[in-house]
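Troubleshooting entry. Yesterday's outputs looked truncated, so today I'm pasting the complete records for two proteins to confirm everything comes through intact. If either block looks cut off, that's the bug. Protein one:
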Amino acid sequence: MEIYKKLLKIQRELKAPKTQYNSFGKYKYRNAEDILEAVKPIAHAEGCIVLCSDDVEIIGEHYYVKATAVLIDADGDGKVCATALAREEEEKKGMDASQITGSTSSYARKYALNGLFAIDDNADCDTTNNGTTANEQPKKQPVNRRAKKELTEEECKKWAVWEAKGQKSKEDGRSAREVFLERFFVSEEQLNYFDDMVDTFRKAMNVQ
């Protein structure tokens, strides 16, 4: 189909720069808006339209945003789409419900666009650890299949306290450290910081 030839050309020409900066992790990254800004001029030159939409799905006891990215051939009837899922946090300090949903949507859309336009994030913090991304479908334990998120110092300390207390995941009994590494983009420097905090909290709580 002609749409696949156009998609091939768009994938070949697309360059999506990382214009965002995580001050805590000290790394650059791209978001869905960066990808859309870069791809739209190329897609329009090929006579194509890029659309993104969201649906909410309940899997187990949790809410997921399912994002769909679509490339439509305006000169014909062809289209190609990709989907991705991201789980909503039950609560996040400083955010109301609509902001949490919006943030989750942005993550899901980013991974849907990554899949559609074959954007390789291997050099990003998205794939620093052996966790899953929003492209992967949740199975029996959706809590372990959520999209990774940028790590803040507040989150780092919170999870370090849980690890120091020896808390385990209610779903599968994994340690707080294991779940922490799966849920967040964690650099080697951040992981060392996390482990140091765990030791500090254990000493403060007299935990061996």
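Protein two, checking that the full record survives here as well:
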Amino acid sequence: MTNLSVSKIEKFLLCPKNFEMSYVHKIPQPNAWKPFAGTVVHQILENGMRLFCKKGAYPSWQDMDDQYETVWEEKRKESEEKPWFIGWQDDPKDPLETLKPDYRKLIRLAREEVLPTINPYLIDGEPVIEHRIDLEIRTKVGLCPIIGYADLLDVSGVLMDWKTTQFNEKGELSKRAQGAWLQFAAYSLWAWPLVGEEELRCEKIFLIRGAGDPTVQRVPFKIGPRHREYFVKVAAQVWETIHYGIFIANPETWLCKPDFCPYWAGCMGEFVKGKDEHVTADAGF
């Protein structure tokens, strides 16, 4: 492995064994439509922001909406041409014929309620949108390169990130999604010296699909020195653990379920006691 990303670090913290299957052995899995649809929306919003930086005005929501089918097909083709692509995974609980139009509605929502409040920061005339960030963390086994892409830095100095999601079974936005900050801690290592605020202002912009009209929820917070110190420490520990080839399954995480982990059957499946129950440490394993 030549580098880490925040998503890789987060996956390792959830379950080192899942990380090993995904990033070391690179066992391919079918592509899921839900994250794919989010990527399509993300691309259209990026197109709109870049046009704003060139012309000083955002395109209409209709113009942005008109891109949906074209971008969808472009992204689908890109996915299917990758060497590790093995197919699409359909979810009977969330069929494509429902999912696709639901995500399309998010474009108008973002254009009318969010984009008018955004003015991307410029570096050498280029907007900080999907901006590549390269970091190096010192570890006991050498330098750990970390590559990331920041969604957006606003001219007001706020580091922002788009999230496409839906409410949970309780009709609420996931507290886990709202509270996750590791990505911002990483990118703030680059952003706070540029902005000049040690306590960097950040914001998650959730575009939330639903059965009716979609909604938007913006979650502001701050990232400071302690968050950055924690990220550096954790990134170093993950890199060192990978170096020594230590990948232990974590059955206590939310990821360790047949519906969430594609490697569950080969990892925890042999300890099955019932239809949906697996043996834990209480049983002596």
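Both blocks look complete. Sanity check on protein two: The CA atoms of residues 3 and 235 lie 11 Å apart.
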